[in-house]
Amino acid sequence: MKRKRVLTVLAAGLVVAVAAGLYWFQPWKLWVNETVQEALPMAQVTESAAPAPKKPTVVATGELIDHEHATSGAVRILRAEDGSLVLRLENLDTSNGPDLRVWLTDAPVLPGKDGWFVFDDGAHVSAGKLRGNKGSQNYPLPAGTDLARYSSVTIWCDRFDVSFGAAQLTKTV
Length: 173
Fold this sequence. Notes:
Low-confidence stretches: none
CATH class of the domain at 55-171: Mainly Beta
Distance between the termini: 77 Å
Pfam family, one: DM13
Structural class: mainly beta
Protein name: DM13 domain-containing protein
Radius of gyration: 21 Å
Organism: Amycolatopsis speibonae
């Protein structure tokens, strides 16, 4: 009888451990892609006789490089006529994962494993959760974001504190 109780407790512990591991690592995301295709953000037109909205000005650009996961695509930071900033990921292709974020950071982009962990050491601004691991998407930056303070963008896994990929920004304006 004692042996049966021990086995029951061990089996229950194993079930809890497996459930916690599945929740934490979310391994099914390795096989599930989420594609998001958003148009270039445009100014809002409020009057029917108003001229066509202007395209936003590109103020910074960069190309994503691999870190923890194979990652490619372009990053552009756009300024709208009203002064608001949008971080745009174009043709993004990376792995899906748990708790992925888009961060604007002050860290340098280092190639290879040296660059995996540097982005949470300094200042960063979260543009929000990554909506899709493939496609083109827009992330409004918080009002008052000072682009002079930031030099890179990372796709950051907040669960495991690691960069999936990052881009060094080059200011264009």
